[in-house]
Amino acid sequence: MQRIQEVIVVEGRYDKNTVSQVVDATVITLGGFAVFNDREKLAFLRRLAEKRGLVILTDSDGAGFLLRNYLKGALPKDRVKHAYIPDVKGKERRKRKGGKEGKLGVEGMSPHLLLEALRRAGATFDEEPPAPAGNSLTKADLFALGLSGGEGSAEKRRRLLKRLNLPEHLTANGLLEALNLLFSRQELEALLEADLSEKPDGPPPSDAERES
Fold it and tell me: Rounded to whole angstroms, how far apart are CA atoms 164 and 208?
């Protein structure tokens, strides 16, 4: 399986499943039109674009182009590539009936057509196998850093997500994936240390304290 450096952005989870069987890449879903009102998801995509670069891979129907055009105006153009699948008439197996335009979406594309679309978009294929992920964060690291499973971990996680402009409703797996995409272990430890040093302001002094 060939590896792609950029993060691939697709419409939904079935698209993600299909793409993940064709290439070794990080695949993020938009959740359809929900992204229009999800400022946190958009901020997350901007961070990923700046850090890794994005490849937008949506369906070839009107809805897919509506999503693509929205992202074109919302993300840094020099950090985004666009992969276009061909118009292929048909219906995905899992669906009882096809879409309004009668076209196959990303989930219905063959591996050959997906690879061709990604290559035409200029996606960066790694010829070398990925290096061992020995420095990647794990769930055990989240626990050790106080971000899960301990007293105050939920508040610490909330503050970190807010500081990083990441979606507050990220699952534990989603948080782990996002942190590994954006930061090294050392960078995350430095961020947490800085966060702890910024203590929130205490309550205002009482009248007795002011007079003393």
Answer: 40
DSSP for 118-135, written as a single string: HHHHT--EESSPPPP-TT
Q: What is the pLDDT of residue 185?
A: 74
Q: Is 49 left (phi over 0), alpha (psi -120 to 50) or beta?
A: alpha
Rounded to whole angstroms, the Cα distance separating 5 from 35 reads 23
Tell which wins on pLDDT, 143 or 18. Answer: 18
CB 59 within 8 A of CB 39: no
Residue carrying structure tokens 């995350």: 188
Tokens read off for 194: 């800085």
Structure-block tokens of residue 101? 């335009």
pLDDT by residue (tens digit) across 32-56? Answer: 898 999 888 898 999 999 999 999 9
DSSP β-ladder status, 80-84 and 54-58: parallel
Q: In what order do the strands lie in the sheet with 7-10?
A: 27-29, 7-10, 54-58, 80-84
11 alpha-carbon distance from chain centroid: 12
